[in-house]
Design brief:
The complex is a heterodimer. Chain A contains six helices and no strands. By secondary structure, chain A is mostly helical. In chain A, helix 3 (52-69) runs antiparallel to helix 4 and helix 4 (76-94) packs antiparallel against helix 5. Chain B starts with 8 loop residues before the first helix and ends with a strand. In chain B, strands 1-2-5-4-3-12 form a six-stranded antiparallel barrel. Chain B has a six-stranded antiparallel β-barrel with strand order 6-7-8-11-10-9. Chain B contains three helices and twelve strands; from the N terminus they run H-H-H-E-E-E-E-E-E-E-E-E-E-E-E. By secondary structure, chain B is an alpha+beta fold. Classes of the chains: A mainly alpha, B alpha+beta. At the A-B interface, helix 1, helix 3, helix 4 and helix 5 of A face helix 1, helix 2 and strand 1 of B.
Chain lengths: 180, 270
């Protein structure tokens, strides 16, 4: 019981630290570096390697912190993250058969696309349809491209590190085993 | 009905989220929110400063030839500025004496609250080119919506869009929709309205056709907006668009500072 509580406290502190990094450090970085979406990457990795329950816990804690720090309406980040991750979870459960790097990249692309589309839609609704809708701007797609590039890079690094440490995952490429 | 099963994680998540949103809107968890904002303030400030340093180093990358050209340009500017500086010093002395004589209160007679920038807030493309700033001071420090925000060298950089207990959101003058009542520093004190353009420059509109506006003219706040005092520098005119068949003319204004380098700002309370 105590170990579970300690685990939860550790998760909350780690999430707080990550939320501050995303909120303050990454947002102030130059050029393409401010498009790194650490929060979403972490949530995708947690969902992929530890399942949807753990991912929902992380979404809840991370989303709560981001909702407090941000000036979007309360619940904006929790809702966007949860729907995006649930969508990829359903797709990965029904259409993806294994836990390979390819699957991780596909999940990552789907989640990032869904999240950005949802966030732009919710922000557009929140201003009473007075502004402009994200996907109609080139900057939306440029930002998505950078987020995907960072995400794929992180996935390759993270997946290979995890493969070398754990045996649960499939290798990068299928092994060429000779029958004869 | 599988969704409403006790151990369905999605069901638990939805219920807790609903409860949290309820607690937020009723203000029950506001002390916790304020405490967390207060707790992360100094850490956010340090992280933001690190990011700004990286941003400055990144944007200041130059080739040796570019640096040499810039040195030559700066030498010329220094020579030019030395002459104007001596002139302005005389004007300043004269101004000081006159103010003393008539017992005039300094024109900068307003309260200013110093604040650290802790983040850049994304608008998720609702406004093209928008990236608002978040500062670590809010209504508890006397801030409110529409107050003017200055850089450390006294140039107006934007105004408060939204103020919470311990933080506020600022729109930059280059952001579309961030409007200021402005005035030209000429004989007629021509008035107009400035609005941001694509997050890069400022457009001044509603300048009467008969007024003379030239590139290089300084634009200041007109003081017509009751929350922003008169005389705060906005920028310099870089281009004027005037059509003979139009009632108004427009001017493009270049901001005088790089907004990416800002870490500390002052909020003016008139």
């Amino acid at each position: 019981m105590i170990s579970r509580i300690l685990q939860l406290v550790a998760i909350i502190l780690a999430c707080l630290f990550l939320a501050v990094i995303q909120f303050s450090l990454i947002s102030s970085l130059p050029g393409a570096f401010n498009q790194i979406n650490l929060v979403l990457m972490l949530v995708i990795f947690v969902m992929f390697f530890f399942g949807i329950r753990s991912a929902l816990l992380f979404i809840f804690v991370l989303g709560f912190f981001l909702d407090i720090f941000s000036f979007q309406f309360f619940g904006f980040y929790i809702i966007s993250l949860a729907i995006a991750v649930m969508t990829s979870y359903l797709i990965s459960e029904n259409w993806l058969t294994n836990k390979s790097l390819y699957s991780l990249v596909v999940v990552l692309i789907i989640t990032l696309f869904t999240y950005n589309l949802l966030a732009a839609s919710l922000a557009f609704i929140a201003v009473g349809f007075n502004g402009s809708f994200g996907p109609f701007h080139s900057s939306f797609w440029i930002s998505l491209f950078y987020q995907l590039a960072w995400g794929v890079l992180a996935a390759i690094l993270f997946f290979n590190i995890t493969v070398s440490l754990a045996r649960r995952l499939k290798p990068f490429f299928l092994e060429n085993k000779r029958v004869i | 009905m599988a969704f409403i099963k006790k151990n369905n994680p999605l069901f638990i998540f939805t219920v807790v989220l609903g409860l949290l949103v309820f607690l937020h809107w009723t203000g029950i968890i506001r002390p916790l929110e304020n405490f967390l904002s207060y707790l992360i303030g100094p850490v956010s400030e340090k992280f933001y400063f690190l990011g700004t340093q990286a941003n400055t180093s990144y944007s200041e990358k130059r080739t040796p030839d570019e640096l040499l050209a810039e040195i030559e340009k700066l030498k010329l500017e220094v020579a030019k500025n030395t002459i104007t500086d001596s002139h302005w010093k005389e004007v300043e002395d004269e101004n000081k004496k006159l103010r003393d004589q008539i017992g005039f209160i300094s024109s900068n007679n307003f309260k200013a609250v110093l604040a650290n920038i802790v983040s850049k807030e994304e608008s998720f493309y609702v406004t093209e080119g928008s990236r608002d700033l978040v500062i670590d001071k809010g209504t508890k420090d006397g801030l409110r919506k529409d107050l003017g925000v200055l850089s450390d060298n006294g140039i107006i950089i934007g105004k408060i869009l939204e103020a919470r207990d311990t933080s506020s959101r600022i729109c930059l003058i280059t952001t579309p929709g961030c409007q200021l009542a402005a005035s030209l520093q000429n004989e007629n004190k021509t008035k107009g309205i400035t609005d941001g353009s694509l997050g890069l420059t400022i457009e001044m509109s509603y300048i009467p056709q008969l007024e003379k506006v030239s590139p290089g003219d300084t634009i200041i706040t007109s003081g017509l907006g009751s929350d922003i005092p008169r005389g705060l520098v906005i920028g310099k005119v870089s281009d004027v668009r005037s059509e003979s068949n139009e009632v108004w003319q427009d001017a493009t204004i270049e901001p005088l500072i790089n907004f990416n380098d800002l870490t500390v700002v002052s909020v003016v309370i008139p």
